[in-house]
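Holo prediction — manganese (II) ion.
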Amino acid sequence: MLVVMKHGASREDIDRVADTIREMGYQAEPIPGRQRTAVGLVGNDGRVEDGRLLTLPGVLRVIHVSQPYKQVSREWKPDDTIFELANGVRVGGRDVVLIAGPCSVESEEQILRTARRVRAAGATILRGGAFKPRTSPYSFQGLGREGLELLALARQETGLAVVTEALDAEGVELVAEYGDIIQIGARNMQNYALLREAGRAGKPVLLKRGMSATIKELLLAAEYILLEGESRVILCERGVRSFDHHARNLLDLTAIPSVKELSHLPIIADPAHGTGRRDKVPPMARAAVAAGADGIMVEVHPDPASALSDGAQSLTPDQYDDLVVEVTAIARALGRSIARPAESAVAEG
Ligand code: PEP
Ligand code: MN
């Protein structure tokens, strides 16, 4: 159960609620938020009588949350979370956002060429790793700060928002300085220090599902971020490990309607990492939009054969053009549209 306090509730009001919860025989966990404070009641096995709490000063309402994740759940917030990025793109709600770009930022020419092409196709968010979580320590690890600077240059030139990964808690500040969205990769979904730091950075967070994480674990990971006060979280289904190696991962399309039922947070799909194979990306992107995804993130490279990472799953710019036409038609058939940037944020060129 969550006891939600009114906006101007005093410290004494909050303490009184916590004391009352303890007197009732449960544990009280104050949950400070940017908008409002709530006091969580834990230790109950079933529904708790709320009459006594509802009459206390400063109490707005009581929410009975049956899930282990609280603020992430639909019980806590029935309406979809919708937020706007710096370039005016709305994430969540009716619009489907298109995120595209190379796996890694490799050079100025590579990122600018890609950014121009994906923007022309209809993408509004540019992806690109500057700090790369590579399975092998001998693989290309990313350009680091230089990569972030190149992403900022691409944003300046195209008006695209930028999403890029922070690999560790220490790196969050730097990534937040350059990026519009902080990406937390699959390998880091349960890096709780990183989740907390990202939740404090003041930027939206794109949280990818761990490769063997359950939906519940994904939502609990998101809870760490919301608990720090950042409610602009985008969840991402990027495929889970499977026994079958016909594809790199098994893109779990069921995760999309499941998350939508359990949580108010937007969920997007990444069919690039979800399949690992270029030819499988368009059909799974189409399927993800059909399943209700709030966005599609794919990898696009001007010359996939020479990519320093994930070339096999990267689309060419021409292939991306075709994919956007297809997913736009599917979105429309479902009464949705593709997210557009605010006119003022669209650079000429
Ligand atoms: C990526 O987006 O490039 C990436 C490394 O993804 P994941 O964390 O899903 O493997
Ligand atoms: Mn990649």
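READOUT: The longest helix spans residues 317-333.
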